[in-house]
Amino acid sequence: KDRDFCLVSETNLHINGHFIGKSKKQGLKRDFTWVQSIGVQFDSHKLYLGANKVAKWDDARDELSLLLDDQPIVLQPGRGVDWESASAPGLKISRLQDANSVTVEVAESFVITARVVPITAEESRIHEYEITEDDCFAHLELNFKFFALSPQVTGVLGQTYSAGFKSPVKVGVAMPIMGGEDKFAASDLFAADCKVARFAGRAIESVAGHNFPEVACGSGSAAGRGIVCRK
């Protein structure tokens, strides 16, 4: 918790995630963690998507923060509302609901679906998260779709698209862990300084137009133990 990790690193795309969480309970080896925000770098641009800190959740109130190159994006309320960037050609953001759910698209590169959700009192009770009334741990549920990746793509998620990748995760155990903290830890949400970073701010060796499988990441696993990503 309270750390930044590289999710995807490519020559012209770098995505870090910031994790929030609750300290591990006695007897557990891992903290409970959720993705609070992501920092997306493409070309010379920096895009921030993050869930605000919220005490009491209200579905009607928008708790999604968006910034492009450190400037707030003003996205009007209402399902279906679109916003297109004048400074970053090809960048389009669309609301999927009246609040807290958007798609972010950069033409011929990626589509990210982001939804802000809280940890409910019922989830906290079932999974013993011990969520208190001062913070409902609003976080992002994410879906990634990529259109141009090279065989050398890396990152916690990106590595799964690389040629010859074999998952080290033991699926049958109660809490499967991929590992790799030493390779994927970053010093900041927009720092491309993890050991395996490939970001150069330009397209090199991309396989454009390929239909890469989508990845969905969220905390909705039946066991309720940490973030789970599935293709």
TrEMBL record:
Pfam families the UniProt entry points to: Root_cap
InterPro entries hit by this protein: Root_cap
PANTHER family the record matches: ROOT CAP DOMAIN-CONTAINING PROTEIN
Protein name: Late embryogenesis abundant-like protein
